[in-house]
């Protein structure tokens, strides 16, 4: 990788210890304990620390019904907006693990949003995010509502489609998190229908942009991809999604979907094992619609503190094997993220 190519890590999570109990997934016995701060991120990325990162919401506790009624169900997601604002404005609370000098590192951020509640609730919620974000508001480039663990049909409800269209009209992206490994082919088929419905009859410049997380979380334990129904279904969906307008793909989330034994191997061995999936993503989307993302600190689970550098080496190897020119490398490492998230440079 050329030394002058900047890195934007397009998918990281940060949270302070004081707010752990607001995380919907956190338990005292879970694999991610304590806070994960910018100070720790700098250590994890030492030697290749990105010039910027994009913060993704971390699935705070929420209550859609209470949110629609009086906004009380949105308390913890709005608390997260306040947390990332402290980073961006360089105003840490004691012990939060970031400093005034870190303020410029956050390139953009993507809060949670109540898309199932429909456009009217979304309008109210976005206004509250703007109010909470204050001077950091220009860095809010999109929203996410995790679909990977939601009931079938959630993303196809009329209110959800309505919310996606609203995001498009307002110029926000939607970060799409689904899980082919655990939810199977049906969830990916729903994604294709969701995108079609969100874009149907909408002028091109008002269509919402979809930024797909973690390669749709495929099952990376498959040995014989040529005959695997799971791999074939995933491959078909990836090529179909790539034909949809305004779709981008994050090269991320691989460690979580592979066998534990593979996570511990050298980056070169891991690359060889998952190259069928990487090749499909590359062939479908091309360098101009693929972006590097680490999913830190989730990527460390079962891998260890060197996970970020390990994943970077895998993406480095992909660029080398594809014989990319510097401009293509630049797109994968930073250019695609800046374009997809509409970040002015």
Shape estimate: globular
What is the ordering of alpha helices and beta strands? EHEHHEHEHEHHEHEHHEHH
The portion of residues forming beta strands comes to: 5-15%
Classify the helix fraction into a percent range.
Answer: 40-55%
The chain-level mean pLDDT equals 96
The SS-based structural class is alpha/beta
How many beta-strand segments? 8
Distance between termini? 21 Å
Number of helices: 12
Give unreliable regions as ranges: none
What characterizes the major β-sheet? Answer: 5 strands, parallel
Strand order of the largest sheet: 4-5-6-7-8
Radius of gyration: 19 Å
Please characterize this protein's 3D structure:
This protein has 345 residues and is an alpha/beta fold. 41% of the residues lie in helices and 10% in strands. The chain has twelve helices and eight strands. It has a five-stranded parallel β-sheet with strand order 4-5-6-7-8. Helix 5 links the parallel strand 4 and strand 5. The chain is globular. The mean pLDDT is 96.
